[in-house]
Amino acid sequence: MDNAVSVILQACTQLEGHIDPNSRKAAEQVLLEFRKSHRPYIIAQKIIESSQQPVPIFHALAAIRDGLSREWISLSNEEKYQILFFVLNFLATKTSSLPPYVCKEAATTVSVGYKRGLLDNASKAQGTENNHQHNELLNSVMNLASQNFPICIVGFELISAIIAEMSSSYLQGANVSWAFHEQARKVFEANALLPIFGLIFSIISSSSFSLSSVDPSLIRLLFRLSQDILSWEFSTYQTQIL
Question: Which of 107 and 204 is assigned the larger pLDDT?
Fold first, then answer.
């Protein structure tokens, strides 16, 4: 495993430097194969934990996202949520030292896993356990959003990624069919959309919320999310809740 990590880190270093086209192509191929590899999670987590550079972390997160999209059905419930909570906790603790493109990749990874897990509770054998851990994932995101600035930004950026993933525009990130996407949207609309809006509204309407005292980035994010939810295109047969 250490050798695989070294090869990936070297490829990232080469891409950041001035190298000839053949070497660049070879480095890109290494990273492409990493993202396509079977169960890349242990190697990816080791890179995320040990690297101080954003480029290797970005590619490790991308490998996790692609792996979850590709292998979700074959992963155990424990594996799925260990990976998702690892990424969530990494983002919550390291976001201040990460460039925006890495934070966005981490948030997208969590949102893809959240979407894939929405229909897992349809399985009678594992439904209760899956549903509990899936609910805990969203609860953890909302708990981050409930914290003081700047931690709350992490939570709301995660919520933004989830809303984008669940929107009426079909996204390929989760590697699911249109039928799955639509059914997952209905579950999301019925169970998660209103609590998310309630959290946003409670913050905006609180006595401590003031346009002159709240950080502008948080204000923009909250109002953008409010607009996204209030203009939500509900599923054809879903009762509107807002």
Answer: 107
